[in-house]
Write a sequence for this structure.
């Protein structure tokens, strides 16, 4: 009898297993709700908006997952490569968007789901930065960086510099004047306090103002031949030599500690940086203020929301992405988190221009950042802009750590960048 | 006499069933071990973007040639890997032997100490690394604070080659010493106490007994631990990756001073998207791991068992 029972038992087990698996596979439909996930990095300020959207769309359930900046983009690349694991909506930063738009077939072409009808919402350069060569739109713009200088009023006072924001802005019409001010600050600075956080952040700000960045319009690297980069590099190297820098690399734990310990008096401040400071060092409320950036406008950072094709509910995801990046929502994110809208219709909206931030001593950040955004020269971002920026950060670190002088670090940088093909 | 059907079935059963019983291992190994290995070998012969499988081009051994003969950063990473292997494996085994020896004695709260040994090993490697990175902070790190009592200057742990290797080795040693100590302790307890009694009668002191009796008798476990530690350290990724996080994490410091081979693989594959190149690194690393494990096996085998 035994041989006969065995196959039946096996059959039963197999059936049970198959049933269990198939039940898992279709579990989504059973709940009746469409589940959408958002893959983010840093702080996008979407938590309240998501509650609002869910309340208006009872059939949709949204989850957020947030990772660190570079981890997020690496995970996204891995998920797209394997065709699984990506969220329904994935955020991509300016530094990486060119790299991802090179493979537009991994993303839903938002132009096919109504994107082309709303394109006028965005700054035209913001729209075209995520537009693939074949005309597919892979992402809706969220914020732009804009630029300002965040500074510590209390430390400026201690160094016998003016602390009032208009007077501070007047100290540095140019970067040269900014570094001269730095020398004056350093001469009387409290013990252990440096004028600026580190070379790499200042470099990013200076480079963000140049008409041409790391690439020309044909995606050719011009790091070696672009005089704006070399001039900016030399200026920052001189500032490091003059001992103005705390030598911290942004997004590292030591840099974060620097905010709480007051190791530096200024930091170049795209709008998203304000959220970072506030999240990182809440105890410094009221000590910070915001002045204009030397040289006018400029941009550093800003993101896009993309809809990977691998998602189950790409239609709903594209609708949500469009809603999250619509002008009304960008206005809310600006007043709650300070992220500067990428929709120019808001730049003259009194709700935005009149906005002041209590954490930054009630600085009129609405006006400061919209003015900076209006003066901004759109800069073309090439395919590996994010990686070039990393190499610049490394090169400047080698100078700050005393391992190389400016010329040697530059030479190694040029070699490293040439390998990024 | 002809075999009946039942007899024949019994014969097949005896012959084939063992293969059936061990087949799950081979199936799983085939799916999760062999297939990825062969696929990696296949990809390593291609010029291939991680995101663009359709655009892959076959280039033969081009990736290997580039790596072995024209890529100083690869050799830098291999050098760092070997340096970290030496800095972690040797202290791990020596500390583990010492700790196991101490725990093998009669002392108060022995079980508590023994259980404590495994605690570092079961904590999350990411958490351990982040905490250690704070301890080794340049300006406000605990290690520099303690060093300042002795008048030592501020060490920028991440910046230097030797200092960053020391810090990373400290994390690995802290995490794995207890694990090896428990393995050694288990086999120490199997050594008959009569051997020590006889040695005591012969006039051998504690230290002599340790080197002449304990260590030689632990030879198989020491070989095992060394090989395990070696293969683990050749793949060292999380500690150097998280030691200095931020946008430059994958390069292992401003001048790649603590970029291990596994981290270089990660950089090529997941920041440069060069899937073919990183696959070639993976295979070379696998071969190098076998070589280094073989060397450490031969070295530890030389422990005297007289």
């Amino acid at each position: 009898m035994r041989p006969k029972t065995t196959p039946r038992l096996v059959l039963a087990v197999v059936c049970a297993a198959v049933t269990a698996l198939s039940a898992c596979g279709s579990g989504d439909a059973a709940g009746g709700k469409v589940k959408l996930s958002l893959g983010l990095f840093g702080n996008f300020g979407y938590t309240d908006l998501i509650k609002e959207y869910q309340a208006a769309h009872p059939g949709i359930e949204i989850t957020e997952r947030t990772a660190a900046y570079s981890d997020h983009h690496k995970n996204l690349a891995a998920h797209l490569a394997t065709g699984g694991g990506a969220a329904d909506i994935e955020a991509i930063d300016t530094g990486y968007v060119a790299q991802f738009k090179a493979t537009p077939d991994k993303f839903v072409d938002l132009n096919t789901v109504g994107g082309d009808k709303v394109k006028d919402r965005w700054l035209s350069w913001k729209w075209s930065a995520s537009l693939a060569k074949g005309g597919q739109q892979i992402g809706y713009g969220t914020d732009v960086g804009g630029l300002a200088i965040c500074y510590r009023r209390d430390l400026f006072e201690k160094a016998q510099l003016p602390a009032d924001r208009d007077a501070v802005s007047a100290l540095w019409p140019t970067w040269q004047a900014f570094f001269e001010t730095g020398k004056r600050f350093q001469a009387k600075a409290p013990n252990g306090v440096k004028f600026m956080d580190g070379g790499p952040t200042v470099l990013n700000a200076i480079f963000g103002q140049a008409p041409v960045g790391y690439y020309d319009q044909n995606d050719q690297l011009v790091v070696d031949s672009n005089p704006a980069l070399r001039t900016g590099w030399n200026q920052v190297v001189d500032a490091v030599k003059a001992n103005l820098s705390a030598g911290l690399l942004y997004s590292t734990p030591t840099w974060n500690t620097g905010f709480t310990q007051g190791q530096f008096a200024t930091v170049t401040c795209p709008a998203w940086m304000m959220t970072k400071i506030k999240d990182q060092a809440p105890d410094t409320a009221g000590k910070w203020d915001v002045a204009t950036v030397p040289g006018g406008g400029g941009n550093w950072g800003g993101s896009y929301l993309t809809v990977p094709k691998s998602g189950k509910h790409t239609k709903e995801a594209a609708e949500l992405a469009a809603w999250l990046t619509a002008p009304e929502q960008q206005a809310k994110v600006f007043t709650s988190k300070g992220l500067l809208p990428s929709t120019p219709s808001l730049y003259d909206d009194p709700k935005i221009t009149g906005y002041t931030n209590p954490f930054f001593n009630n600085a009129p950040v609405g006006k400061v950042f919209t003015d900076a955004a209006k003066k901004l020269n759109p800069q073309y971002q090439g395919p590996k802009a994010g990686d070039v920026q990393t190499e610049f950060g490394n090169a400047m670190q080698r100078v700050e750590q005393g391992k190389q002088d400016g010329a040697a670090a530059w030479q190694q940088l040029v070699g490293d960048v040439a390998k990024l093909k | 006499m002809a075999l009946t059907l039942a007899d024949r079935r019994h014969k097949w059963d005896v012959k084939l069933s063992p293969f059936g019983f061990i087949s799950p291992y081979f199936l799983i190994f085939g799916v999760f071990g062999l297939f990825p290995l062969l696929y990696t070998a296949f990809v390593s012969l291609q010029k291939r973007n991680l995101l663009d499988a359709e655009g892959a081009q076959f280039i033969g051994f081009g990736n290997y040639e580039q790596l072995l003969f024209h890529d100083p950063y690869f050799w830098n990473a291999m050098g760092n890997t070997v340096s970290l292997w030496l800095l972690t494996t040797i202290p791990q085994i020596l500390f583990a032997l010492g700790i196991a020896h101490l725990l093998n004695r009669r002392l108060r709260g022995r079980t508590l100490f023994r259980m404590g040994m495994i605690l570092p090993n079961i904590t999350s490697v990411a958490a351990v690394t982040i905490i250690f990175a704070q301890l080794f902070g340049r300006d406000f790190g605990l290690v520099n604070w303690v060093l300042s009592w002795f008048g030592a200057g501020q060490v920028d742990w991440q910046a230097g080659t030797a200092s960053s290797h020391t810090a990373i080795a400290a994390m690995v040693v802290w995490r794995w010493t207890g694990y090896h100590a428990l393995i050694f302790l288990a086999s120490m307890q199997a050594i008959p106490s009569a051997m020590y009694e006889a040695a005591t009668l012969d006039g051998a002191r504690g230290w002599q007994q340790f080197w002449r009796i304990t260590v030689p008798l632990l030879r198989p476990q020491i070989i095992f631990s060394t090989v395990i530690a070696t293969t683990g350290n050749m793949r060292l990724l999380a500690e150097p990756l998280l030691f200095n996080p931020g946008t430059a994490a994958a390069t292992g410091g401003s001048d790649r001073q603590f970029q291990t081979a596994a981290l270089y693989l990660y950089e090529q594959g997941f920041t440069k998207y060069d899937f073919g190149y990183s696959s070639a690194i993976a295979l070379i690393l696998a071969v190098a791991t076998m070589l280094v494990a073989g060397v450490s096996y031969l070295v530890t085998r030389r422990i005297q068992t007289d």
Summary: Residues 2-25 of chain A form the longest helix (24 residues). Residues 1-30 of chain A have pLDDT under 50 and may be disordered. The radius of gyration of chain A is 24 Å. Residues 206 and 232 of chain A are 6 Å apart (CA to CA).
